[in-house]
Each structure stands twice: as C-alpha cells, then as structure tokens.
Records
---
Amino acid sequence: MTRVFVGMSGGVDSSVTAALLVEQGYDVTGVYMKNWSQDLPGMKCPWAEDLADAKRVAVGLGIDFRVFDFETEYRERVVQYMIDEYKLGRTPNPDIMCNQEVKFKLFLDVALENGADMIATGHYARTHDGTLLRAKDENKDQTYFLYRVTEDALRKTLFPLGDYTKAEVRAMAQERGLWTASKKESMGVCFVGQVGMRDFLSQYVETVPGDIIDRDSGETVGRHDGAIFYTLGQRHGLDLGGGLPYYVVDKNMDENIVYVSRNLNAEEMWLSTIELNNIHWIDRTPENGAQVQARIRHRAPLVPAVLEGSRLVLDEAQRAVTSGQSVVIYDGDVVLGGGVVIS
Amino acid sequence: MSEDGLLYFDYAAATPLSDVALRAMRPYFSEKFFNPSSPYAPAIQVHREYEAAKHELAVAIGGKADDIVVTAGATESINLAMTAAGGGHIVTSAIEHHAVLHAARRHDVSIVDVPRSGIVDAQAIRQAIRSDTQLVSIALANNELGTIQPLRDIATVIEAERLARRNRGDKTPLWFHSDASQGVGQIDINVARLGVDLITINAAKCYGPKQVALLWRKPGVALTPLVYGGGQELGLRSGTENVAGTIGFAAALTDASQKRKSESKRLGDLRDLFEQLLVEGNDPLQVTIPGKKRLPGSLHVMIPGVDAERLIFLLETKGVFVATGSACAANSGTRSHVLTAIGLTDAEADGSLRITLGRHSTEAQVRRGAEAIIDAVRSEIERVRK
C-alpha cells in the first residue's frame, strides 16, 4: 500500500484531500507543518487552533497525525527572503518561496525519511509524470504558486483536488461531515493576513518617512512612512486627499522617494517586455522563440507571449509588473516554469 | 439542566449554573437593575440584598461579610490576594494554577517542588520560608490531579514561623492564602478549620455564574487594590457591584454547602466505580494518584503511549467530554506544568485524562462514559499497533 503523508493545515481543502486519499485506499498520515506560531501586534496567530482542527479531522478519518516543526527553516528560508526583498524595494511572493523551500522540499524530504512513498497537499493543481498542470477550477488554480517546484518533487506528489472545483470540495467536506467543512478561508500569506504585512515588516525593518512626489508635476504631494511598504500600481493607502486617485509608478529606495501619478496610463506602469531572472523550468526547457502564455500574478489572465532567452515579449503590454514578483509561463495546461521580474 | 444526553466529565473546568442560582439572579437583570449606590429606595433595597448575599457568602466559609471582596473571577481574587505579600517574598508550589504562579512571579517567589504523590510537603514549605516571606499560597485541592493539600499542616508551620518572629521582635507579617475553588461543594471550606488567612472561592466551580469569585481575608491582612475608582468593596475593588452575579454566587454556594456531605459521598462512590471500570477494562491504564487524598469527584488516569488528545477528539464525537494535561494544541503545545512537576514522563503526561464528576453525574453516565473511554483507548492502541 502506498504511504502518503498529506500536509494538513486545518483548512477545508487539505481536510478533503486527506479524506479522498483514505477513500482511494492509500495509507495516509496527516502532517501539520508548524511554520509560524508567533502572535503579531493586534493579531493572534491561529496555529494552535489550526493544528487542533487538522488533528480533529485526522482522528475522525482514523489516520496517523504528526506535527513537523519547520519554524526555524521557515524563518530562515521564507521570512528572511521576504524581508530582504522588501528592503530592496521589491515585491516578493513568500507563498512561492514556501512551496519551493518548505512544502515541496523540506516536507517532502522529512516525509520520505519517515517512511512515506509520496506526499500530498490540498493545492488546486494537477500533476502527471513530473509535469505540473493547471487545475480544473480555473478560478482556484494555484499553479502560479507552484512553478518553482521541481520535477522530482512532482513525481512524488499527489494533488487530489486538481480535478474538482472549490464548490465541489466544500460539498464533499459537508457530505463527509468533516469538522472543517464550513471553516472560513484563510487569506494572504500563511502567517500575515493581508492587512498585517505593514505591521509585520515594521517589526523587522527600520523605516524612515519620506516624500511622495507626483511624477508628472514634480511636486511633493504627501509623505509616506517607508518606501518599502509601497508596490507599483498600488492605489490604496496613499491618503493624498481628494481628486483623482494617485497610483504608485516608481520608487527610489536609495532616496526613499515614492513616485505617483494620476495618469492610469503612465508609461512606467505598462510593460511589454519583461526581463526575468532566477528562471526555473519544471520538466522541459522551452525553445527560444517559443509561443507561450504568461501569468503575471495569481489569478491574472494568461497573456500570449514569446520567449526570447530570459526575456519575455508580451503580445499586449501589462500594467504594474513589479520587480520581485513572479511571472509563470504556461504552454496550454502545462506549467513550464517561470522567473522573477527584474525590470 | 438539559445535559442528560451529554456525558460531561469535566466539572473541574466548568459547572452548569444551578436552577437555584439562575432563579435568584433573574430579577437583577430586569426589575431590580438599580445601582446599589443610588440614593432612592429601590436602589437601597438592591444594596441591602447585595449585602445580604455577601453575608450569605461569609456564612458559607465561616467569615464575616466585611472581610469579603467580590471580584470578577478567581484569577482576580488570586491576584488581589498576592498583594498581601506587600514587597515581601512569596512561597508557593510547583503544582499551583497558572493564576497563582504567574501572579506570584511578579513578586520575589520561591516555588517548592512537589513529590509524585501530588501533595505538597509542609516541611518543604517550612524550609522555603525566609525571614522576609510574607505570603504562602497553596490551593486546597489541585485542579488537575484533585489531590487535597494538607492546609492544616502548612498552617501549623506558618504559625510556628510567626511565633518565632514575634519572639525575636520581628514584625514582618506572614499570611497564608489558599485557592479553594476546586474543593467547594466536596470538602470543608471553613476558613478557621482550614487555618488560612485568605481564601479564594470561585462561583463558576460551584454551579454559580462565571466571572464571579470572592477573596476573604482575615481582619488585619493589608491588601492593595488592583482596580481603582468609586471605592466599592471597601476601596479594594472599585466598580459598580456585580449584583446579579454575587446573588447567584451566594445562592449557589449555600446550595453547594448544604448538599456537600451527601454529594461528597455520592461522588466518591461514582468516582470509585469509574476508576474500577477503567482499570478492569484497560490493561495499560493506570490511576495517576490512587487513594483517598483526592477530591471525591476527581479521577486522573494515564495510558502511556496513547495520545490523549486523540482520545478526546474520538470521545467528543460520542458526546463524552473529558480533559487532558497532554501537550495538546488546545493549550498551545505545552504539557501541563502540574504533570511535569510531579515527575510524570512525557508519555505519561501525553496519555493522561482528567475525569471530574459533579452534580448531574449518574451511575448510568459513569458506566457509559467508562465504556466509551475503554473503546476509544482500545481503538487507539490497535491503530498504533498497525
């Protein structure tokens, strides 16, 4: 019997994942990865509750349950990376790093050491023969976060939810009476809620207030509390009074200046050629000049593009392509890989 | 109480509000809503009824109403009690509730070790008392193990130290506090017979409302308020009196005291039956601390090698509710300090169940509960073997 260690976060997706694997006849062990447990200002870290939820489901399914403590590694490989990237003025994606370093490397390794034949997670994605494929539920597809996973890891991975929609998964949880069936979706980075990123960063990075300058008029239109908090294309949180909204169009980290514009079509915001580094191809390297599709952020539509070495030429310019963020490259349903935007 | 379908065995955590208490409280949420400090007749009537409730509380512990401070829960009562140490040293034990340990750690404190028996050694307390010790705090009964502490012996040690201080002209006071929350309704809580100078009693553990407790202290014990304001409770606990809560507390405490002797015998018999059924039905199961020095309603068992948290999750689906001191997620992965303090191994602590009985426990419930636990343990042992 194939032994599968399934990552159980205490959410409904991984709960259904475990249930399906049990039903499919695998020898299943549930694993809670303890990556973060620290409370943040005004925010209680829900790890203990999540762990208990995951364990309740595991006990209900009659499977083994373990806790893998990855706090040190998570801090070193994901949180530190995130902080370093923000310091450089970029917009990193810690979830992608978490998948690359923790879930599909560390977790896989420790699971195999502990007798697993394979691992499974509740990601909405499909895999076949070391290939990563988009999920059936286009709206939930999580392959954007998975493009840095290796072919070897994929060969040892199951994604039982890849053929279901989120609605179907919820229904399956209800039918099975799983404890987590009606649990609310967690948002954003696993340990910082979306609103919490600013508070989180302020704990680790010394920030200095600086000027917000209107790129078009050259006038100082406001003050910011640290350029690292601002992302290209961002509209909210500028607090610059009435009139047409301002958008962030550029940052100068050395001089701690945030540049904004009221012009939605400001040239800086639109990019048709994207230079990538840290490129990772999963199981095949596309040829130079290959016609591909690119996704510049999670849930963004796929846009046709041509690959020219480490450069991606988009058929149509895209708005707010930010350095540090990932561009994932597809060939139809197949995820070829992707890279990190440098400019 | 409509808990007949539930096999609730966690009375040490919470007791359901008694009908007597609920009935007594009800008018104070509606027609008797007045502020006891207001000057008109109906408010003064409420004030009198509040004072009468405090008198009733005092009678139940053998003290006087003026020496009682009503607090929002036992934790506050304990924190207030700790101020009796002034700037001095505190002696307490390693198996005290976190309310005591964490409040005491704000002072200079010595924490005495407790042997495997789960019973504090009075001689260890004697050795820990220094010339600047001003407070000793030991619970009447341990909230996890149910072990009854030798308060009389400790009081004797304290009296000897006081005498020695008097003889050498040392005026440093030394007081003895006990959190008696767990013993109420099961064992004697008369302050004179226990030999304590301060006592904490929790309404929520004797079928009264939550967030209501009292601190009684002997006249002469100086306390420092934690909450300042309008000067209620002789200035020791400001804030408009919790009239409904105090009246419910008084009704519950009187009721529990009246039922104590018969209830204590009944619970002891039920506990012994529970223990016998579990021991007979489970090979690896051990009673953590057998014998008579336990609260009649308390049973603590260990099944080393079995994950007690899994048992709890299995049992809850059958409507059976028990507690554990294991390193469970519910308490953020920390093993019970009580179990660690008496020297249980990790496997023993992680396989431990706390079963506590109360007023609505019946023999039929005990039999069904024991059967459910035996089944759950058996299925877990089988699962681990596979």
Note: The mean pLDDT of chain A is 90.
---
Amino acid sequence: MSEEIVTPEQGTAEAPKPVLPPPLAEVTGAFPEATLEESATGQNVVRVDAGRLVEFTQACRDAGFEMFIDVTAVDYRRQRPGPRYDVVILLLSLQHNLRIRILAGVDGEVPTAPSITSVYPGANFYEREVYDLFGIEFTGHPDLTRIMLPDDWSGHPLRKDSPVGSVPIQFKGTNKVQ
Amino acid sequence: MSEETTTEDKGAPSTPPASEGERRRLQEMWATGTEEPSWVTASTAEGAQLMLPRDNASPDEVAEEGGTLVVDDRLFDEDASEEETTILNMGPQHPSTHGVLRLQLELEGEIVRRVKPVIGYLHTGMEKTGETLTFLQGPTNVTRMDYLAPFHNELCFSLATEALLGIELPPRAQAIRILMTELNRVSSHLTWVATQGMDLGALSMMIYGIRERELLLAFFEKTTGLRMNHNYIRPGGVAADLPDGWEDDVAEILQRIPEGMDDYHDLLTNNPIFLGRTQGVGVITPEECFAYGITGPPLRAAGVDWDLRKSQPYSGIEQYEFDVPLGEHGDVYDRYTVRMEEMRQSLRIVAQVMETMPAGDYRSEDLKVTPPPRKRIDESMEALIHHFKIFTEGFKVPAGEHYQAIEGPRGELGHYVVSNGEAKPWRLHCRTPSFANIQALPVMMADQLIADSIAIIASIDPVLGDVDR
C-alpha cells in the first residue's frame, strides 16, 4: 500500500450551495473561522476548529439546539490532506425543527479534542465510545475510560489501520479462571 | 490515560504507573471489602469502567452517577458515608436487565444512591463489520442491532443509502415500508408491555403480550421468510412484494391486537398494584431528556410533542393520519400509557396503508441498484452478468455523507453513512436510541427504591444489541 492520498470519486449529484437557515446563520456569524461544508444531501454541516468546539456547541445550545443527538468520529486515513480524523457532533433543535452536524478535524499520535460534556452531559458515553474505538482523547471528560471493550484491550478497532481479522482474539483473564 | 496503562495485565510482574494501579487497587478493595485479590473479583472486574469510591471520583462523576448533573431533584438528604453504603452488582446475568446489562448500584438501605451502567458485554463491532459489507449487504448487518425492531434498522440504512444515491422510490415500495415498520413498532411495543408486566410481577402479561406478537411474527415470516433479522427492506425498495392474501392477515391483526390490548388494560391499567409501582417512579424532566439525548416514548412521556414521523417525515408517512400521544409527568406510568396509545396509532396507520396501498412496482426502477427480474436472466446474458455483479461487487454510491434519522420504537434511530465513492461504506455509524436511554438510567433511578429500579429499566425498553452494537 502506498502512502499517497487517494482522492475519492466526486459525487454525481448536484450539490446545492450551502445556505444556513436563520438560527444557524446567527451562530456561525459569531465564529468567522467556521466554514460551511458542502453536503450532497442538503444537510447543515459546519466545520470548526477543534479547539473551539465547546464555545461553538455552547453557542448552538443558546441558539435553540437544545437536544444532544450524537458524537462520533470518522477516520479518513489516506483519504484527504489535512487532519486524519473528524470528530462529528450532531445536534437537534426541536423549536426550529433543524439539525446541525459539526465537524472538527483532529490529528496526531494521540488525537485530542475538548469534551463537550460540560455543555451536553449526554456526550459522556458517546465520547467514551469514540475514545475506546478511535483512541481520540477528550480533555475535560469526567470519566474517560473504555466503554465497549475491556480495559486491557490494546488498540482501537475502528481505526482504518486496524483491519478486520488482524488481531488475534483476546479473551480477558483466561489464565486466571480455573 | 495512555494506551500502555490500559493494556497492563493485573497479574504481570511489571508495575503499572501509580495513579492507574492505585485507582484500580482502591476500587477492588472497596468493592470486595478485602485487600486479597481473588479470581472471583478479578473475573468480574472491569477495571476503571466500574464505579469509583466517592473520594476518588470527580464531583462531576458523582453527580452524573447520582443523576443530579442537570436537575438536582434529590428527595432524600444526602448524608451517605462510605461505611453506610453497599455496592450491589445487578447483571450482566439478570433476568430483568433485558440482556447483558450490568448496573452497579450504590445502596443506602433500600435507597439507590448512585448508579453506574457498565455495558459492552454484547459488543460485536457491527460498525466495523458494516465497513466490510457492500451497501446491498448492509441491511443484513444493521438488522441485527435492534433485534426487536429489525425493519426500522433496515429502513434507516436504506434511506441513508438512497439519499446518497439520489433515487426515488415508487409509492408501493414506500407504502410497504411504512406497513412493515409500523407493524414492527406494534410487535416491539408488545414485547415491551409483556416484559414490563413480567418485571412487576404480572407474569401472565408476558404470555398475553407474546401471544399477540406471534400474529405479527407469523405475518413477517410469511412476507419476508424470517421471523426476525429479515433483510427485507433494502436500498432500492423491498426484497419482495407482499404475499397473496396479505390483506386478510393484516385485517386479522387489526382485529385481534386491539382485543388483546383491552385485556392488557384490564390487567394493568386498572390494577392498583401496577399503578402503585409505576406512578411517580423514575421521573425524568424534559430538560434532562434534551441534555441526555432521550427521544421517543420517554421524551413524549415527559410532555414534549416531538415525533420524527410528524416533524421530519420519511418514506411518505406524512400522508397518513395519526396522533402523537403525550404524557405529563415523565414517570414509568406515562411511558406505559404513551406506548399503549402508540400501538393503537400505529394500527391506525396500518389500516390506512391497507386501504390505500398503491399498485405498481415494489422496488426502484433504477437499474443501477435493482437487479433484473428473474425471467430476464433466462433469456439475456447481460441480465445474468448484471445480476451477478450487483450481488457480488455491489453498486457504487457517490461520495458524500448523510445522517438519516427515523422514529424507531425506542426513539430516534439514526444512521450516519460516509461513502467515498466505493461499493462499501467508508464509515457506518449507528446512533441508537437505547444507548442514550441507558445513559440516563442514573437520572431516573437514583434516589428511588431498589425495587423500583426494575420497573425503570423495563420502562425505557432497552435492547442490549442496540446499546452495544
């Protein structure tokens, strides 16, 4: 496998020019570095600096995005220039009937992003899951431990350099139980 | 915490860094009441994933486990000291945890002080598996996540794929999808009402609920060939048309399930013991629902009028009339009444689908995703090759990402699909409602009696396949 970046095939669907609905436009107006991402299916996608995630989600919450939906991550290994991982945060506004997807690129041997548990307590389990399966650390998380896999598991299985079948099956504590 | 510390074997002679080892040693000392390590505790220990003693835990962690992080609605005075509390491990092998859910309860007498859900016992890496399957094979994978609502999982994945493909479905395919998912909602809620009754001691409720569910499963088997994990709803439509005489089966379902529900109301709704065990138990406020991402019946029981079928309709569900039942107090009883009424509303949708079932094709006309009909394969070599390639290589989906959410029986079911232009998804993430609901168990259970914890677990209707994936 070569280290060069493979550019994905571009979508054939005509991507509409991203225009944000009013409550969201106000939020992004206060964050000049936040950029709108093109979405092939017309969803509201905003990319922000990982360092400003907490402020941005707080602003979203103040603008009416009261419902926490999801935190996850995507590993774009060899797919694009720039940071390897995207932390993906999904929020929902019931009063405006709007969704927003917030992307923040993180990179490094131990990728690090700020925890949004102070804004949305529900992010707790979701960030633990991302930490467990991707190895992205969330600073400021109250209890950052593995959640799906046992504590003594090595590696992070949803990373793209951890292919299916590459790890011998690990059983925990088999030598201890008679 | 670095990777090295988490991989430390407890029996290995190398010494772990002090903080992590000390944390673990204190944890085990506290949980077992002795410094002697034993294989019994070692085999059930989950290390740092377990509940920590109050002195070692951060204030946020204690508030989270005590359910007071968002709204501090504690009823009893907080004067528990370590000496007065007991740790009770409930599960993972416990009949009322609905699967392999483990709850650590810190008890003071009969009052639950702190709760820590420990999950992951059913983790099978289905999101990773999803990356190795083509978009056409995808439903076989996702249908096994929430095994009580397989059609909803398939529908959500298919809608996300179709959004990226940009294909439209014929009206009959959409109507069949609504018919199956709404029947599935009824069968899922029937399993819930059966187990909710059983967990509270109404054992006959289990038999009645499963009795009516059998009608639905028989219809699913007749239509799809399987009682669960159907792989029936696929990108591009459904796998097969409805069987001959399906109207008779659905008419029988529409007649017999309301009759059964009258029995349930006699058995539970008018039962003073059931009311006493459920009313005012496990209250969750709308504010806490938002903070924890609680959707579906628990959110509506808290009085929030939010149903994705109304607010963000999918698959043509907006053309059918139905009401969204709401609760008032957000307790176990309201979640019960909301789900019972949802069953009636789902049957109402099913009756309308049956009356207005459009004629036409049951799958998309798009040759890219739809295999050629069987009889074309006998007469055309190209059709045979096309058929072969669709089922071996799959079809390519344009690059892009899409989050699709539908109203599952347990709440918002969302699939986040990232495609890089290949036939397999680059990333498949499933936002499952049970995962969010399990996380909010401390909010509902802390400060309640231990007997009520059983009622509360049943009332959020967790499916552990959905939690752990």
Note: The domain at 22-139 of chain A is CATH 3.30.460.80 (Beta Polymerase; domain 2).
